[in-house]
């Protein structure tokens, strides 16, 4: 019996995630609602793609080499993904994040060997980003800076966008994504518009006062530099309760176990579906629900 000799590495397993159809939640509709299951990436989120892209491309440019120290501000998923990528590549990684991040996220980063620095919830991601840049200025390491690094959206131009186009046979009419660093919506949107300018790119942001992990309403001074507003056809506001309710429904009615930003994206896709006919709507499920268990998100509404 012949056996393969060129086995893949864990890095080779990033991408090529499933695209699945919502079955029960949409009800009777002429539209097809599809979800891209990015939690199937090795470190559990869509951020695996840009994390590997930012490190690999920085290496190719000669900016970094194994053994160097990398620094990044993160609310969770990018940190976990970078921790995996740094472990693969042999880098020391310092992650700065708000203390409000779930215990599962902190533990996952530490498991990969990353060093964590926590800022207060009041300082938030803005404070984390400021501290990362301060540490870089002091010579403590290189900030990859997912918020301004073009290697972030490039990962989705290279992989996520082409996968969606191929998996839908070019029939996609609407692309829906929650917006955090905005790398996913920028990269996928650019690729899909190149294939068909009529594809509508729809972004989700939280309503004022809502706390939805992974997505933000950025103050103007902290708006990600990779974000180009005119490349998003429509921005929807999603409330925290609506996003959380949809997240629970996805687990209980569809068997899709994901985080709150993904629930928000699906809620937006359903709103959109109510407005159109014969559409193929693709939403990003950016991570898995197991990293939110300690938050109590999935306890609401359970019978005892």
From TrEMBL:
It catalyses: O-acetyl-L-serine + hydrogen sulfide = L-cysteine + acetate. Its EC number is 2.5.1.47. Its cofactor is pyridoxal 5'-phosphate. GO terms for biological process: cysteine biosynthetic process from serine. The keyword rRNA-binding does not apply. Keywords: Amino-acid biosynthesis, Cysteine biosynthesis, Pyridoxal phosphate, Transferase. The modification N6-(pyridoxal phosphate)lysine is found at residue 47. Pyridoxal 5'-phosphate binds at residues 77, 180-184, 261. It is an enzyme of class 2 (transferase). Residues 11-287 form the Tryptophan synthase beta chain-like PALP domain. Pfam families: PALP. It comes from the Bacteria. Pathway: Amino-acid biosynthesis; L-cysteine biosynthesis; L-cysteine from L-serine: step 2/2. One of its GO terms (molecular function) is cysteine synthase activity. Belongs to the cysteine synthase/cystathionine beta-synthase family. This is Cysteine synthase. It comes from Microbulbifer agarilyticus.
